[in-house]
């Protein structure tokens, strides 16, 4: 990778970070068949669980980041939000997490991304009222 490419990638990642305040997101890149897939993960400080914020892809990391920024700027605010109440097996505390997604299945996909389906019990998924 050229120095200019790395500099542009860093610049775009920093733009994404500005939307998340004190808790920076985690960028997970994966290349499959010449396509770069980017999963942006956020972490909840109350229960230290990571969740998928959004996935994007492109011919390279810069295109994937540009697609992610477009989602953050243009589309995320148009999606409904969902509240998921859940508990991890072996724990007694009920947790609440929030997701923007086009539908309930999208919210559950974000919730379960990268985790064992059998390690968590979901108690409810609620579509939040539009504001």
Q: Quickly count the helices.
A: 3
- Under the CATH scheme, the architecture of the largest domain is 2-Layer Sandwich
Rounded to the nearest angstrom, the radius of gyration is: 16 Å
Helix content range:
25-40%
Can you walk through the features of this model?
It is built from 3 helices and 6 strands; from the N terminus they run αβββαββαβ. The chain is of the alpha+beta class and 131 residues long. It folds into 2 domains: 1-77, Double Stranded RNA Binding Domain; 79-131, Ubiquitin-like (UB roll) (Roll), CATH 3.10.20. The strands form 2 sheets. A 3-stranded antiparallel beta sheet has the order 1-2-3. A 3-stranded antiparallel beta sheet has the order 5-4-6. A hairpin with a 2-residue loop joins strand 1 and strand 2.
Detail the topology: elements first, then pairings.
Elements: H1 3-17, E1 26-32, E2 35-44, E3 49-58, H2 61-75, E4 81-88, E5 95-100, H3 104-112, E6 120-127
Antiparallel strand pairs: 1-2, 2-3, 4-5, 4-6
Helix pairs in contact: 1-2
In a few lines, what is going on in this structure?
The chain is of the alpha+beta class and 131 residues long.
Features:
globular, 3 helices, Double Stranded RNA Binding Domain, single chain, Ubiquitin-like (UB roll), alpha+beta, 131 residues, 37% strand, three-stranded antiparallel β-sheet
């Amino acid at each position: 990778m050229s120095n200019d490419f790395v500099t542009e990638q860093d610049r775009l990642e920093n733009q994404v970070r500005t939307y998340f305040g004190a808790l920076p997101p985690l960028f997970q890149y994966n290349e499959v068949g010449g396509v770069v897939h980017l999963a942006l993960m956020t972490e909840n400080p109350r229960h230290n669980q990571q969740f998928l914020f959004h996935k994007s892809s492109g011919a390279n990391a810069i295109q994937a980041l540009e697609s992610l920024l477009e989602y953050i700027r243009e589309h995320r605010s148009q999606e409904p939000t969902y509240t998921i109440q859940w508990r991890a097996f072996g724990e007694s505390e009920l947790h609440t997490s929030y997701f923007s997604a086009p539908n309930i299945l999208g919210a559950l996909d974000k919730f379960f991304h990268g985790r064992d389906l059998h390690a968590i019990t979901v108690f409810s998924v609620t579509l939040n009222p539009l504001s």
